[in-house]
Amino acid sequence: MIELVECPRDAMQGWHRPINTDTKVAYLKALLKVGFSVLDFGSFVSPKAIPQMADTKEVLSRLDYKSLQTKTKLLAIIANVRGAQEACQYEEIHYLGFPFSISETFQRRNTNSTLAESFDRVKQIQQLCQAHGKALVIYLSMGFGNPYGDAYSPEILQDWAAKMANLGIKTISLADTVGLATPAQIKEAVQELIPQYPAITFGVHLHATRQNSKAKIQAALEAGCIRFDGALKGIGGCPMAQDDLVGNMDTELMIDMFKSKGIN
Fold it and tell me: Do you know which CDD domains this protein is assigned to (predicted)?
């Protein structure tokens, strides 16, 4: 069975015009009725960095999550210990997601911290999650290369996955942040990691164009991946991609593919 993670937060955060809170609440309530495994709904980050997510607390308070009686679990993105502390106060939130880039340059741009500093944050956040009954999801961003000339190899990706595994992280998502990954890279990475860590769920957060979406999904499926991130219409993606066509994986496309293969 596939775990499908719908990411409206990722779709909304790069939207050029402000989306009002009423619209967000109505949209998220509708998504919570669909049956996704996880809903990446908002983030506890600086409103200066991501203005579109400044109302995450208000949105959460108005979702009336318990009354919806949904099986969908909520995930919030955090970038530092302060954000994790805030997110841990909400019973409705099951997952905290931390973007850990294996590119030093991108990690500084994304969370204003070095790799070493970010790894220390992960340790602290994992302790917070364990103390509050939350699960930490680590996104290994720039997981298939980067446009900055920072060192990259499959061995570097595997090394950081091992470090996260040693902290007791149970969910790791390999993120094709700027759409650089080839299907062969995706398949190799996933099928290398899954057998090594049977207690960990490895997912993929892939960015793609219409031309290469299916090939990337197929590669992850063949490698044994069961957790896929997407966004309706493929909206969103990383602004660092410098290509408007490199967006999130299209949820409808994935659902159609899974159905055609008889996958639940």
Answer: DRE_TIM_HMGL
84 within 8 A of 16, measured Cβ to Cβ: no
Q: What percent of the chain has a predicted confidence (pLDDT) above 70?
A: 96
Residues in the chain: 264
Q: What percent of the chain is modeled with pLDDT above 90?
A: 88
In terms of phi and psi (left: phi > 0; alpha: psi -120 to 50; beta: otherwise), the region of 241 is: alpha
Q: Tell the CATH topology of 3-260.
A: TIM Barrel (3.20.20)
Whole-number Å distance between alpha carbons of 29 and 10: 17
Instruction: Report pLDDT for 238.
Output: 62
* Alpha-helical regions (H) of 113-250: 115-132, 154-166, 183-193, 213-222
DSSP state of 52: G
pLDDT for the residue numbered 236: 86
**Residue labelled with tokens 């850990």:** 100
- Between 75 and 16, residue with greater pLDDT: 75
Helix (H, G, I), strand (E, B) or coil at 60: helix
CA–CA gap between residue 213 and residue 98 (Å, rounded): 24
Q: Tell me, what DSSP letter sits at residue 152?
A: -
Task: Tell me the angle at which helices 251-260 and 213-222 cross, rounded to the nearest 10 degrees.
Answer: 50
Q: What is the pLDDT of residues 92-120, one digit of tens each?
A: 999 999 999 999 999 999 888 999 999 99
Every domain of the chain and the residues it spans: 3-260
How many Cβ atoms from other residues are within 10 Å of residue 66's Cβ?
A: 9
Q: What is the pTM of this model?
A: 0.95
For 6, the 3-state DSSP assignment is strand
**Mode of pairing for the β-strands spanning 247-248 and 201-208:** antiparallel
